[in-house]
Amino acid sequence: MEARDVIKRPVVTEKTTMMMAENKYCFIVDRRANKTQIRQAVEEIFGVRVLDVNTMNMTGKLKRLGRFEGRRPSEKKAVVTLAPGSRIEFFEGV
User: Fold this and answer.
1) How many CB atoms are closer than 10 A to CB 3?
2) Number of domains in the chain
3) Residue 40 Cα to chain centre, angstroms
4) 80 lies in a domain?
5) Is 61 helix (H, G, I), strand (E, B) or coil?
6) Considering the domain boundaries, does residue 70 fall inside one?
7) pLDDT tens sequence across 46-79
8) Dihedral, CA of residue 28, residue 32, residue 3 and residue 77, to nearest 10
9) Domain that holds residue 38
10) According to the model, what pLDDT value does residue 90 have?
11) I want to staple 35 with a disulfide (CB 3.0 to 4.6 A). Which of 50, 53, 58, 77 is the partner?
12) Is residue 78, in this structure, part of any structural domain at all?
């Protein structure tokens, strides 16, 4: 699995913006990716040093439209802690 296949998109919310002050960044990643693959992908794409990776599986919420019921897709979220002095320039100005 290539680095661009592992990391799908960044998560930019109020909470993740506050976490950036602690040098933590949040990404939606491939559900089959493990912590080692996520670490290598972030280091390869952004050129930074990763200290820690925390992952969580987010199950899709149940939604209704009238009498029809559906489910949003499930996804995997990763919170990546970078080494002191490392920053991801992609998130600057958000």
Assistant:
1) 15
2) 1
3) 13
4) yes
5) coil
6) yes
7) 999 999 999 999 999 999 999 999 999 999 999 9
8) 20
9) 3-84
10) 73
11) 53
12) yes
pTM for the whole structure: 0.88
What is the CA 5 to chain-centroid distance, rounded? 13
Residue 69 within a domain = yes
Chain Cα centroid distance, residue 10: 5
Distance CA 23, CA 61 (A): 29
Task: Give 91's Cβ-side CA count (13 Å radius).
Answer: 21
Whether the Cβ atoms of residue 30 and residue 46 lie closer than 8 Å to each other: no
Q: What is the CATH number of the domain that holds 18?
A: 3.30.70.330
The two three-digit tokens of residue 92, written as one number: 């600057």
> How many of the other CB atoms lie within 10 Å of CB of 58?
13
Burial class of residue 9, CB neighbours in 10 A (0-12, 13-18, 19+): exposed
Q: Could you give the CA distance from residue 70 to residue 64 in angstroms, rounded to a whole number? A: 6
Residue type, 49: R
**pLDDT (tens digit per residue) in 11-25:** 999 999 999 999 999
